[in-house]
């Protein structure tokens, strides 16, 4: 069943078809699970076939397919395989680009741009002929906040967010938005030793009005809302526990 314009305006994703690229863990997996719970037909895309199938099995009632967002041929094969979709969510990310600028290796920063910014662009371009309603990019509030040691991440995510309004104008009536998470407890942090991660999360929580770090489900709710709202385009929605607010 194809989602109609009237259905989109009412804010429902039931009966729509959704692709979540980067949907094998964390925010992407939580987003795929919520779309499925709301009655959408969902396809998870990821580079590792075994991980994609495992995520699909955890969620239930979703499909999976292989896609490497940094490879145009792989992205085209993915969309040729799954066919037309109503909503595309790009939750791709890499693990590089963070650290003090004095010691940040520029090759690592380039890898970070390739794994996130260029993976978003490569996948978006491959998907365009087959997307009927919306594209939602997943960035991060590092794009706009002055966290020490995140200048590289700010550059990567800032570039993604800078594209949202021009793309929304260029691709209309296709809607383009971004959801911008703060500190979220996902596998992105797993490279950090557990005691160090726990300490960082505790410190981050103290500075937030919500007094906790985020969960993938917090971000998933915003992504589904943005996709469902047929009158919303060119927006960047923050899901950061109030990180953007000054604390006294």
Automatic annotation (TrEMBL):
Q: Which GO terms describe its molecular function?
A: oxidoreductase activity
Q: Which UniProt keywords apply?
A: Oxidoreductase
Keyword Oxidoreductase tagged: yes
| InterPro entries associated with the record | NAD(P)-bd_dom_sf, SDR_DHRS6-like, SDR_fam
Q: Does the record bear Ligase in its keywords? A: no
Signal sequence segment: none
Q: Which PANTHER family match?
A: DIHYDROANTICAPSIN 7-DEHYDROGENASE
So what family is this one in?
Belongs to the short-chain dehydrogenases/reductases (SDR) family.
- Name by which UniProt lists this protein: Short-chain dehydrogenase/reductase SDR
